[in-house]
Amino acid sequence: MRTHAHAHPVSHRLWGRMVRTWAAGGILGLAGLGASLAWASPHQPLSDNDILETLPQQSASRAEARRLRQQLARQPQDAATAVALARAYLDQAHQEGDARLAGLGLGALSAWQNLRPESGQVPTEVLVTHGTIAQYLHDFDGAARRLQQALKQDPRHAQAWITLATVRRVQGRYAESSQACEGLKAAGNTVYAAACLAENQSLRGQQASARQTLQGLLKQAEAQGAQGSGLRQWLWTTLAELEERAGQPQAAEAAWQQALAEGREGYVLSAWADFLLHQQRPREVLALLASRADATRSDALLLRLAVAATQAADPRAAGWRGLLQSRFEASAARPEASRVHAREQARFALTVRQSPTEALALAQANLQTQREPADLLLMAEVARAQPNTATRQQALQNLQTLSRQLGVHDARLALP
pLDDT digit string (tens) for 117-141? Predict the structure, then answer.
């Protein structure tokens, strides 16, 4: 199964797109090795012209991955080569939505697999890379463990801080996420730290303050011109999601249009499709996605096509539904499948298979590992689909308990 938008994710959600801003040459001036996330080095920049990290603007080619494999075979304990290959695989995983490629990335780091992260014998970049792959595979506790050790070894490692902030946010641990945002600020990345903190504020209902911060960041020098395109898209995406949670669909749509103006790919494309589906506009989703060459290769896009076609009673629904079902079945043999794909499987069960009871069980399993607004919204949709039933009551109880625990403020969660 290859279900990743980010994809989410960030990042597996939004952070995945944000750090690609760095690779596009924003304030960090990056160019070089392939990765879907930025990889900050221990060096602290003294100015905007100081190169903090070297990254590619395009994903590493398969030929480059082959070259790195050959080099690693000759020098299996060469950390730089191992990290470069692991990041190339992770980039391919994000591009193709195939978690198996992330598994190959872990394999590239096998020289250190028998060493405890806390041993001090694992290079910092290996820890950060392993932690980021673990995040992609939804092993959030494992990711946090490695990122925290990396930060003990290098407290100014920007990528470790921002990935840790993402992991804790996905887990619904907002105070710890904000602590990581502050760590990013101390590392000198003030623009990204401010946006990181603003997103946490918005999740807790401080919409006006967060909105003001994000709008101000859009006026910063880093967000101007061609170099600032990636950063602008990330900030507009964050604003769009803020407005959705605030119950302001018109403002959200305006922000989404700004984000889409910077590029239609990855997380932004999937999230825009989700917005349209929530607004009961499935035919626009079909027009947006059906003609794309990658629409059926990417499970993230295929899921949204299947949902849109089902809602619109489009005759293509059966074909897309069958294709997606076969991929879920193929992925079920892998031990991590339930952890990685529970959200997508729950959504598929609810909106395509139209089985709320099955969706409830999957949504409950999903909440054991990730607690983003999308995960709570899924539970609310399960409740809406089953009026006056035990399924609805169980979904409501789960939703109310978790919303109180997290302190999430999201107008979309209100139920009649």
Answer: 999 899 999 999 999 999 999 999 9
**Position 255 in a domain:** no
pLDDT, position 46: 37
By residue range, what is the domain housing residue 131?
1-209
- What does the DSSP assignment read for 39-72? ---SPPPSSTTS------SSPPPHHHHHHHHHHH
- Residue 186 and residue 190: Cα distance in Å, rounded? 8
Alpha carbons 240 and 317: distance in angstroms, whole number = 29
Which of 207, 199, 222 is CA-nearest to residue 48? 222
Copy the structure tokens of residue 190. Answer: 């003030």
At residue 58, does pLDDT exceed 50?
no
Output the six-digit token pair for 51. 């190169």
Degrees, nearest 5: CA angle 379-11-208: 70
DSSP-assigned states of every residue in 315-369: TTHHHHHHHHHHHHHHHTTSTTHHHHHHHHHHHIIIIIS--HHHHHHHHHHHTTT
Does a structural domain hold residue 117?
Answer: yes
Residue after which a domain boundary falls, among 209, 238, 266? 209
**Count: domains in the chain:** 2
The token duo for 251 is 């403002």
The three-class DSSP label of residue 2 is coil
Residue ending a domain, choose from 181, 209, 237: 209
Classify residue 243: in a domain, yes or no: no
